Amino acid sequence: MNMNMNKDGPVKADILLVEDNPGDVRLTEEAFRAADPTILVHVAADGVEAMDFLKQDGAHAAAPRPDLILLDLNLPRMGGREVLEQIKADESLKIIPTIILTTSEADIIESYRRHANCYLTKPIHLDEFERVVKIIDEFWLKTVRLPADTDEKSEPQ
Amino acid sequence: MHERSPRPPRACSMIATVETTRDISALDRRATLAFGAALLTLLAIGAVAYWAIVVSDERERAVNHTHDVLGQLRQLLTDVVVSQSSSRGFAISRDARELAAYRRAIPAAADHAATVRSLTFDNPAQQDQLPLLEQLLRENEAATGTLINLPPETEKPAIAAALLSGHALDTMTKIRKLVLAMQDEELQLLTERNLATAESVDSREVILLIGTSLGLAVIIIAGLIVRRDARRRRQAERSMAESEARYRCVLEAAPDAMVVSRPSGEIVLANRQAEKQFGYEGGALIGLPLADLLAEAGLGEHGDAIAADADGAGIERVGRHRDGSEFPVELTVSHFENADGLLLTTAIRDITVRQRAERQLAETMAELKRSNTELGQFAHIASHDLQEPLRMVASYTQLLSRRYKGKLDADADEFIGFAVDGAHRMQRLIQDLLMYSQVGTKRNPLAAVSSEEALLTSLKNLRSAIADSKAEISHDTLPMVLADQTQLVQLFQNLIGNAIKYQSPGRTPQIHISAKRRNRKSWQFSVQDNGLGIEEKYYSRIFGMFQRLHSREQFAGTGIGLAICKKIVEQHGGTISVESQPNVGSVFQFSLSASEARA
Q1: Taking the domain A5-146, which CATH number applies?
Q2: Where are the alpha helices (DSSP H) in chain A?
Q3: ipTM higher than 0.90?
Q4: Disulfide check for B513: which of A18, B406, B437, B475 has CB 3.0–4.6 Å away?
């Protein structure tokens, strides 16, 4: 269990949101807060920062290992496809469910080919977007059994 | 169109020339025959005439011969008379002149007898007489010799006795009788000969006469024939000249270069346009190979200009001017046959201008296509990229209204309300625009799809609208069509969505979808409703972009839905139309290609 706290109490889940648009970041944070206040959303604004966070490099040395990664594809510096590739090439990181959350509809097959765990498009309307976030919470955080629940989480290799 | 099958040579104006040529050779043959006949007749006449002359010569010779014989006989008789009288004279007078005359007469008579013998060698009757004549001459010589040889001292009575013995006179009488007989014989022979030759000469004259008449007739006929033939020849030559002039005219008047060549490629005729087009003058093209007028790149594999059987039009090649410049040409080749054998007429059209125009057209088309594609892409990208910031605007105004409604003043609530509404409308507009541009850019190849399945999918997409309006939707069995499945779903969805939306308040929407065969290749679909209906003057307007018939307060919408329908149907090669009665309902009809053409 992660020992981070947010204002609503103990954190039950850490999510890494890789998203460069602050509007989307805030919207996603709001949506998750509405869905489940115990979820802590960490944000990386580009691919390089995302990899630093995951590898606990530099400024992110103290970063927690996320339970779930939400990855946008259009990112500055390092694109989402490359981030996905690096995650899935890393023995330790590849077991973290990685969800593509983007506006593009053109990269679905390419993303699954790179072992994305699922592919979602950002709905245009706020209600729809909130519904999608709720579904992610319901399914990925409350329904499925994640690798973090097992001993493997503490087992780096 | 390149037909390769061998074809009978075409009828053409040159045929007239060919026949004229044949006429002339026939004329020549007839004239030769006529002159030959005349010549033969004349030769025959000449032969007959020559023969007649020979015959007449022979006759003359025979007459002369007879006269010779008669003359000789007459002289012989004279000599005998002279010998008798001179012998008697000498016996009486002893005159030396008498003796001399006697001495001349005796051998002369013998000479004449010898001459007669030689002249009448071919006449046995005369020859038979000759020994007797010679005998008598010898007797005469003896009898007269007695008188001559009387001794000079002989007495007058003795001389008288000798003179009167009559022996010499008897001989004389016998000779005269014999000579007369021989003369008779000779005359008889002459008469016979004359008769014989006269007969043959008569028949020959007849022959000659007939022959001459015949010859004359033949010559006259031949002359007439030749005259007539000459007239015909003049006519034929005139008509040939006319036909050639006509052909020349056609050739010269032709707007294209025209070249007539042998299968070997040798040019035998070329019009001025050909000379002008290829830079030659004064018949310089005649005799050149046709291949000289074309660039090597365009020649056949054996270097020939045109395959011998390449009848046809629209053969595109590269022409070569005398100065070496090249230009595109189009050949139209046809074959015909005349007395000289197979000939090819090639019309050569300079298509530089046409090709330039075609190229320009192709370039313009490509440019248009490119700009259309760009426009489509632009619309797609623009609407897609517009959507992102708009999503922010819409989402945050919504968040604002949700979180702060009633916490600020009434104005704030109203302002936020307008912002949310505007953002939502713009989102719909952009979505519809995106869809409209996608109809043009995101096109799947047409495939055989079930229109019924497409309808069911669209009904599933509309299920909440159907449920809300309690619409009753029915349909016939729908056919397989050639379509893009996604677009077909969209088409049904837009039409049925409209039918549900534009409904009189309080009336249950009733919608029926049906299809009937329009022709061999296509189906006609109908979507019938009992809605508000459309006035006829708006029939075509409703399919335009952003065209709305109602206020936004009455019916929400972007005015793009039917434009999308029209674009989808037209993309499929069909048409869409509407028929309606206000307050009764509308029927939207569109056509789609059948997946299999029906016989």
Answers
A1: 3.40.50.2300
A2: 22-35, 47-55, 80-89, 108-113, 126-136
A3: no
A4: B475
